[in-house]
Design a protein that fits this description.
29 strands, globular, Immunoglobulin-like, 10-stranded mixed sheet, Spore Coat Polysaccharide Biosynthesis Protein SpsA, Chain A
């Protein structure tokens, strides 16, 4: 027998336990008993729950048997209690008292438990499976990150307590009078909801600091099994709470629509029957409505709430509206608010998408909305099992099939031709393959200074492996000195009609070199590519082209790996390290990233020009790369200029290359190079001050700028939303002159949306 109690909570007069227990056989069932300190039995409440995570780890399969348990029993302070678990003739006895519970809930104990978990046999088996599939180096990388997490990860519950509004702030919110105080309709479909959970949801609404709201509940429970007694009690207590007993289950879509029909508010808020809201949720929504006039759709960050309703975990800090991320995963989810007039326009939930009805609804709302606003605060607590996949995607396959159909329906309405939508890196994560329109020529521009072996590997990987072959190669010769380099040029040009070498005769300037190469391009699309790259996935070019062919997209970038299969680039965030940086650096390709972001197609502020595809027309429209940025941040700047045209910059994770970074570049190891780098930092800051100051819209102000792994901000080192202090670079800003001013006027004006990239390794010498 194996067991684990994940969560223990003391209430005023009760103890609640959440955990799991199994035997050697998947068919074995555990039984439970609770005793007082004299070993007399105590009456307790027991609810069996699904624990698909346990089933998968121990039995390598799903099981309909409910291995999880929620147990609640009466408690008197100062006394001892015992939980007895029996399974297959074996018994375990766990002692509980106030002192022990406090000790087990401490951060130190939790860290020790993490270490124990890393050392148990199940972890060993999982590690061995990972080793077999990905190799020893990958296992060592993953193990290192796990161990670092033990010491470095914030305890989210503690972090939340430090960041949530104080009682004084909540009191102040209650006194605020807004210019516009809309009626908020909270729409809740219910079905056989545990009374306790429904009460907690309604109590959390009653505790809101903003008071102009109504609750609309449609209960689809069968007659006699519903919640009418509880609902009537709350409705009698507060006239803002209204309900309808439907008498039968109309499905999640039908029950929700029944609740929507009851809504009279200016804005409608969607909520589940067993979740909770923090007391400032409605205040923040109304504050956003007043500060963002014309806003039709609003969503917030969220976290998870354990089944006992006491512990918060797994926060999801989201980006501002990100249409390509939304087609990869339903990242918006909760809290979701829609203006009533837009709701009437798009219609309610659709039965044919049951299982992903909210996903379909969010698509239709965001498609029709003129303005979408994201509140970067946790305004929703989603109840589920801690340390589990209680809502394991694989247990709801129908939901993900419905999700695929919702995505395809979205593409059809938007006029985007997609070949297929299939499972991505995990269930609930989607991978879209777009139809390639025609057979457009792509001009691959590769600056090169010597390093002919690297160049040969780069070019041949595309010529021999790529499933897309309508390519021309423009090699920009940049002051090479090695005989082998020129011999390679002659040989390859003689053998391949689609390879052309052009010579750059001036000093090194990455921007000018690429602009020069682009001037020879005949292709409709440009692929800027470093000579120290190698294509891994055969469909890499098609993946980028699929995005780039869309009218709303100006740039697509690839996932880049170091030679050891760890991530070198998975998108760029403005603000990382002060200016900009790559996401998820050093994470192994097989490791899970923050909400699977490394393997989700999504919009970013920038991607690296080490492998960047763009429309030739867009490249020309913004004047190519900015030559005043000779080495650093020129690709970030290019992305910023393209985004200023209203075009998206897309990260395409299924386009994958090796980037053997630093093989072909010099180091910033001389006073002249350091000064040049600092000068270019200053130029970038001057060009895009709003982005530096306000933060990257595709990141989140609650997440750190000091690491690339989307960790919580360290509140001792950085305030939420606060950028780095970059005043040190002011001394390096060049004096304005007529030439600089003229070139700036020719470039599109910056917008607050943003773009990024940080390559300083362009210099090939």
């Amino acid at each position: 027998m194996k067991y684990k109690v994940d969560v223990v909570r003391i209430r005023e007069n009760s103890i609640t336990l959440n955990g799991w227990a199994i035997g050697k056989s998947p068919d074995s069932k555990a039984t439970f008993r609770v005793e007082d300190e004299k070993h007399n039995p105590i009456r307790f409440k027991h609810v069996a729950t699904r624990r698909d995570d346990v089933s998968q780890i121990y039995f390598k399969q799903e099981s309909s048997i409910e291995y999880g348990f929620d147990i609640q029993f009466p408690y008197e302070r100062g006394k001892n209690y015992y939980l007895l678990i029996r399974c297959e003739g074996r018994q375990a006895k766990i002692k509980y008292n106030e002192e022990l519970i406090l000790k087990r809930s401490s951060v130190a104990h939790k860290r020790m438990e993490k270490i124990k978990d890393l050392m148990n046999m199940e972890t060993v088996h999982v590690a061995m499976d990972f080793w077999k599939e990905h190799g020893l180096k990958a296992l060592l990388v993953k193990s290192k990150h796990k161990l670092q997490g033990i010491d470095n990860d914030y305890d989210y519950s503690e972090w939340y307590e430090l960041t949530k509004p104080t009682e004084e702030e909540l009191a102040a919110q209650r006194k605020v009078v807004f210019d516009f105080e809309p009626l908020l309709s909270v729409v809740i479909p219910a079905y056989k909801t545990p009374e306790r959970y429904l009460r907690e949801m309604l109590d959390s609404i009653l505790a809101q600091t903003y008071t102009n709201w109504e609750v609309c509940i449609a209960d689809g429970s069968p007659r006699g099994e519903g919640l009418e007694r509880v609902l009537k009690k709350y409705a009698d207590r507060d006239r803002r709470i209204r309900y309808e007993c439907l008498g039968c289950n109309r499905g999640i879509a039908g029950n929700t629509n029944a609740a929507l029909d009851m809504a009279r508010g200016d804005f409608v808020i969607l909520a589940d029957h067993d979740d909770t809201l923090p007391p400032h949720a409605f205040y923040e929504v109304v504050k956003a409505v007043n500060e963002q006039p014309g806003c039709q759709v609003i969503y917030s960050d969220e976290d998870k709430l354990d089944m006992d309703g006491q512990a918060l975990f797994d926060p999801h800090f989201k980006p501002d509206f990100n249409p390509d991320l939304l087609t990869s995963v339903n990242y918006i989810c909760h809290l979701f608010i829609i203006r009533q007039d837009l709701l009437k326009k798009v219609g309610g939930f659709r039965q044919e998408f049951d299982g992903a009805q909210d996903y379909d609804f969010i698509f239709r709302c965001t498609e029709a909305a003129d303005k979408i606003y994201h509140i970067p605060k946790v305004l929703y607590h989603w109840r589920c099992h801690q340390n589990s996949t209680a809502s394991n995607p694989e247990s709801k396959m129908y939901a993900f099939e419905a999700g695929s159909r919702a995505i395809m329906a979205h593409y059809e309405r938007m006029g985007i031709e997609a070949e297929k939508v299939e499972k991505g890196v995990d269930f609930g994560i989607y991978h879209t393959t777009f139809k390639i329109q025609g057979n457009p020529l792509i001009s691959v521009i590769i600056p090169n200074k010597d390093h002919s072996q690297d160049l040969d590997l780069c070019v041949r990987s595309l010529m021999e492996r790529s499933t897309y072959q309508n390519l021309e190669f423009i090699i920009v010769e940049n002051n090479s000195t090695e005989k082998e380099t020129f011999e390679w040029y002659e040989k390859m040009q003689a053998a391949h009609s689609n390879i052309r070498v052009v010579t750059w005769k001036e000093g090194f300037n990455y921007s000018a070199i690429n602009n020069y190469g682009a001037s020879f391009a005949r292709g409709e699309y440009l692929l800027l590519l470093n000579n120290d790259t190698e294509m891994i996935e055969p469909d890499s070019i098609r993946e980028m082209l699929g995005f780039c062919q869309r009218e709303d997209v100006g740039i697509a970038g690839s996932r880049l790996l170091y030679g050891d299969d760890t991530i070198q680039h998975a998108g760029v965030v403005i603000g990382f390290g002060g200016i900009a940086g790559h996401t998820f650096i050093g994470l192994h390709k097989a490791e899970n990233s923050y909400f699977h972001r490394a393997m989700c197609a999504q919009d970013y502020s920038a991607v690296t020009a080490a492998c960047l595809m763009t429309k030739k027309s867009v490249f020309d429209a913004v004047g190519g790369l900015s030559t005043e940025l000779a080495v650093a941040f020129n690709d970030i700047d290019y992305c910023m200029k393209v985004r200023a045209l209203g075009k998206l910059v897309v990260y395409a994770p299924y386009s994958c290359f090796y980037h053997y970074e630093s093989k072909s570049r010099g180091l910033e190891d001389t006073p002249e190079k350091v000064e040049r780098f600092n000068r270019e930092v200053a130029i970038f800051i001057r060009k895009w001050p709003d982005m530096i100051k306000n933060g990257d819209p595709y990141y989140n102000p609650n997440l750190t700028l000091r690491k690339s792994n989307f960790a919580l901000r360290d509140l001792l080192k950085e305030k939420i939303g606060e950028p780095y202090d970059l005043k040190v670079y002011e001394q390096f800003a060049p004096e304005e002159n007529a030439e600089t001013e003229m070139s700036r006027k020719q470039e599109p004006e910056a917008v607050s949306a943003g773009s990024a990239s940080e390559e300083t390794d362009h210099e090939q010498q």
